[in-house]
Amino acid sequence: MSIASDILKSSETLFSNPDALDPDFVPKLLPHREGQQQYIALAIKPLFQDRNGKNLLIRGASGIGKTAATKRVLYDLEEVEESENVPVVFVNCWTQNTTFKILSNIAHSLGFKFTHNMNTSEILEKVKEILKKRKGAVLTFDEVDKADDYDFLYLLSEEISKKTILLITNDFSFGEDLDPRVKSRLLPELVEFPEYSLQETEDILRERIKYAFYQNVWEDAAVKKIAEQSFKFKDIRIGIVLLKVAGELAENAASKKIKAEHAEKAIAKTDAIKIKASTDLTDEERLVLDLCKIHAGKIFGEFYEEYQRSGGKKSDRTVKRLLDKLENRKLIKQEAVTEGLQGRSSKIIYIGFEKKIN
Ligand SMILES: Nc1ncnc2c1ncn2[C@@H]1O[C@H](COP(=O)(O)OP(=O)(O)OP(=O)(O)O)[C@@H](O)[C@H]1O
Ligand SMILES: [Mg+2]
């Protein structure tokens, strides 16, 4: 029998439900986020009693359950009596990054699809008209810091009378440059998502194992190793990817258990920094990163000219900020150089996702 047919024939698997390890999977229970979920639910509750809801700014570092906990509350809400009178809208401002796109998206989620020939204020009127027939709405803006403009926040806070606006961000400076008119209308309460401890990280991964794997296939030491790595990077996403990779490695080795050696191999094979960075770049950051690859070795002034030549529209200050962000993520390095009369500048060194750098 050939190797291929041997492998393809083997139907044994350690995974009971591999979908539970997908990035978008929202578990029924989110250990250690009960308080935050309660807070979000309480902000929405007044809408069911014909009162105005509260607005929240949901803030915390990347990969610690902000999106998942919020979605859990919103999904659970759909089960509640009368929920059809309180529609829920969820917009990701990374992909829907302008007021026009965001309002169109809201109209679409509310069931009105014919926005293509309408302008922003016409769409807003339509949204108002739809919501007038309801008790109120929950308007959620995930990755809100990635939006190019915030007119939509002003318009919605001004024009929609009964709503809860949920703003989710991992940018701790978000809000500093918001127009005072927007701030004074929104007055969001802050819901902090603190980082998980090592024990909490382990609890969360053990809970996820219950969803995704058959019982008793994980050895204790393997779970602990993965929890430690996930904790080191302060990101549950990394732990979940490692659960999947270690499971696959054990399965490929025809092991009935996932052991410490599989966890170690998964950790060695999986570049955690890469996982973290790849889930977290905007289109503009990606463009700048691609240009860094092509123009590695250039100093900043030359690089900025290339950026403009390739159609980039942002100011040199903004591009410098983007480079700093990429450097923080260890995707590039900026090396200080002295450039004749121009004084100090920095040379761009490309690292990228390809190389492992931990
Ligand atoms: N308490 C928890 N229980 C179960 N799963 C969790 C918990 N916290 C985080 N996760 C899982 O970790 C992953 C990352 O969480 P999530 O997407 O909510 O991060 P985030 O805080 O929104 O990060 P970002 O700012 O990068 O968007 C998801 O797969 C999520 O299901
Ligand atoms: Mg998120």
What is the helix tally?
15
The CATH architecture category of the largest domain equals: 3-Layer(aba) Sandwich
The overall pLDDT, averaged over residues, is 90
Top CATH class of the largest domain: Alpha Beta
Fraction of residues in β-strands: 5-15%
Distance between the termini: 42 Å
Shape: globular
Query: Can you tell me the number of structural domains?
Result: 3
Please state the CA-atom Rg, rounded to the nearest Å.
Answer: 24 Å
The CATH superfamily label of the largest domain reads P-loop containing nucleotide triphosphate hydrolases
Bound molecules: adenosine-5'-triphosphate, magnesium ion
The largest sheet, given as strand count, sense and whether it forms a barrel, is: 5 strands, parallel
- Please state how the strands of the largest beta sheet are arranged side by side: 2-3-4-1-5
Number of strands: 7
What does this 3D model show about the protein?
The protein has three domains: 12-21 and 196-271, Helicase, Ruva Protein, domain 3, CATH 1.10.8; 34-193, Rossmann fold; 281-350, Winged helix-like DNA-binding domain superfamily/Winged helix DNA-binding domain (Arc Repressor Mutant, subunit A, Orthogonal Bundle). It is built from 15 helices and seven strands. It has helices at 3-9, 34-48, 66-77, 99-109, 120-132, 151-159, 180-186, 198-212, 220-232, 236-252, 260-269, 272-278, 283-294, 300-309, 316-328; strands at residues 56-60, 88-92, 137-142, 163-169, 189-193, 332-339, 343-350. The strands form two sheets. The chain has a five-stranded parallel β-sheet with strand order 2-3-4-1-5, with helices on both faces. A two-stranded antiparallel ribbon has the order 6-7. Strand 6 (332-339) and strand 7 (343-350) form a beta hairpin. The radius of gyration is 24 Å and the shape is globular. Adenosine-5'-triphosphate binds at residues 23, 27, 30-33, 60, 62-68, 170, 204, 236-237, 240, 280.
